[in-house]
């Protein structure tokens, strides 16, 4: 995990990862702590993980991004390396109002990494660039 989150959040995600590596389950025993630390994003993020809505997109050069199919059916691009999501909730609740640590999409990325529930997709450099540029075009 990258150290862009508060230490308590990083530690919880590490514990979840360890529990899943040892027993292949553990979501239920961490549910309360997830809700306490991440607030209302926790349950929807867990739902996204359960639905296997997170795909790690990587290129031959090693560049990665995550695509999360949101509950609305829209595809959002997330960057765990810099703790950023293209969804409106991230811009509003995280960046503007500072009401939340992260949106449900970024939390779903972190949880899917910890639980080993992330789908993998290898694309060419050009395809990854197109994915990233498509997000910019939609925003502009």
From TrEMBL:
All copies of domain SWIM-type, residue ranges: 76-114
Short name of any one Pfam family annotated for the protein: SWIM
An example Gene Ontology molecular-function term: zinc ion binding
Keywords for the protein's UniProt record, in alphabetical order: Metal-binding, Zinc, Zinc-finger
Zinc keyword on record: yes
Domain of life: Eukaryota
A GO BP entry: double-strand break repair via homologous recombination
GO cellular component: Shu complex
Record-given protein name: ZSWM7 protein
Gene designation per UniProt: Zswim7
């Amino acid at each position: 995990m990258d150290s862009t989150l508060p230490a308590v959040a990083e530690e919880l995600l590490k514990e979840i990862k360890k529990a899943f590596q040892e027993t292949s389950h553990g979501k239920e025993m961490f549910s309360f702590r997830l809700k306490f630390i991440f607030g209302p994003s926790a349950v929807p993020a867990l739902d996204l993980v359960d639905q296997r809505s997170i795909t790690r997109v990587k290129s031959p050069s090693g560049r990665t991004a995550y695509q999360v199919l949101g509950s609305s059916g829209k595809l959002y691009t997330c960057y765990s390396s810099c703790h950023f999501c293209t969804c409106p909730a991230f811009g509003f609740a995280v960046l503007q109002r500072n009401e939340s640590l992260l949106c449900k999409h970024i939390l779903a990325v972190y949880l899917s990494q910890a639980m080993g529930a992330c789908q993998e997709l290898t694309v060419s450099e050009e395809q990854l660039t197109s994915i990233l540029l498509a997000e910019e075009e939609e925003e502009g």
